[in-house]
Amino acid sequence: xxxxxxxxxxxxxxxxxxxxxxxxxxxxxxxxxxxxxxxxxxxxxxxxxxxxxxxxxxxxxxxxxxxxxxxxxxxxxxxxxxxxxxxxxxxxxxxxxxxxxxxxxxxxxxxxxxxxxxxxxxxxxxxxxxxxxxxxxxxxxxxxxxxxxxxxxxxxxxxxxxxxxxxxxxxxxxxxxxxxxxxxxxxxxxxxxxxxxxxxxxxxxxxxxxxxxxxxxxxxxxxxxxxxxxxxxxxxxxxxxxxxxxxxxxxxxxxxxxxxxxxxxxxxxxxxxxxxxxxxxxxxxxxxxxxxxxxxxxxxxxxxxxxxxxxxxxxxxxxxxxxxxxxxxxxxxxxxxxxxxxxxxxxxxxxxxxxxxxxxxxxxxxxxxxxxxxxxxxxxxxxxxxxxxxxxxxxxxxxxxxxxxxxxxxxxxxxxxxxxxxxxxxxxxxxxxxxxxxxxxxxxxxxxxxxxxxxxxxxxx
Length: 461
Known about the structure:
The chain is mainly α and 461 residues long. 68% of the residues lie in helices and 0% in strands. It has helices spanning 3-8, 25-45, 56-74, 78-90, 98-110, 114-126, 134-145, 150-162, 170-181, 186-198, 206-217, 222-234, 242-254, 258-270, 278-289, 294-306, 314-326, 330-342, 350-362, 366-378, 386-398, 402-414, 422-434, 438-445, 448-451. Helix 15 packs across helix 16 (294-306).
């Protein structure tokens, strides 16, 4: 009697010699499908083909793999259900469908397969193939996390950190990040480093942060390498060392991390841990700027405006300031505004100047607040208003900008936009003078008679 006949009678299928149970039909289907898929994946992995341009024989193997997984999945094989859901989700060898992917993930998840539970949680968190639901995401992440799935543990940590689907809790976030981190999850290790630095959900400890950044950096994680460089640059948890900072920035920059490339540009610009080089600074700023990093775009704009490491070009400065300003970078918005105010590289326009300076001022940028006040004091692009000038000078002055403190002193001395007050004038002059502002020091040195005087139109920044 053959094995197929024995199956009809419920007879256990086992090796006649060692009595080890023989694979089920579903298991055989799954194994054969996986073997076919691995053959194709190996070919793609060695660069002999791409998933979008498979040779005919490989396309046949993929169709056979999908059919095999589907047959096994229909018989209740959880791993096959997971694999089929994944392939349908990315549209590899089969028509892409988020809804179909979710259907198979749910079947496998209901059987307790941790990876399927995680995938289902991810789908709910992002609303792919299902209605978005943080509560459902938490439910499935937790099931997978409790089985030790590190991605689920990490994502559960994120949900607690951000209060999505659960009450916000740094302690719970730290707990789940820790579970993932000890399994080698680099991103969880980075979050533990950040939380240790800030004392969120744990005792504040730079030494612990160094340990976690090192763990992730040792895996080649560029973000961790960059953080480690910053720790050395600032002497937090380690002896300060510009050379070590450069070493770690370089490792991350060579992997294409824009933030590290920008930092490397800064160290070359300032000669910190390396020989000063404007040309190297431009090289690294450009790499980061071309990836869309706003700070690097702003830095590159400054270099073109000043002609440092490149030929001076107002047009190039405008180009890079504009890229950063459009993404909301306050310093770039202020610089772009002042370029319009002075007509450098663009047609002069007080209206455009006001538009960009206000955007920056509303974000709290001190130079922009000062410039906005100056535009009101001088009626440039706006109706002249001493009251508005005082309002914006005060905002910048309270943040410590010496020029704003001096101008505010002038406004009090002359009673422009405020009740005249020599006492207030001296107070603001003194603040500016303490920061080395020459004109404020002169006012104070000349005595009470010099406190009151005509307000001069100071230049913007």
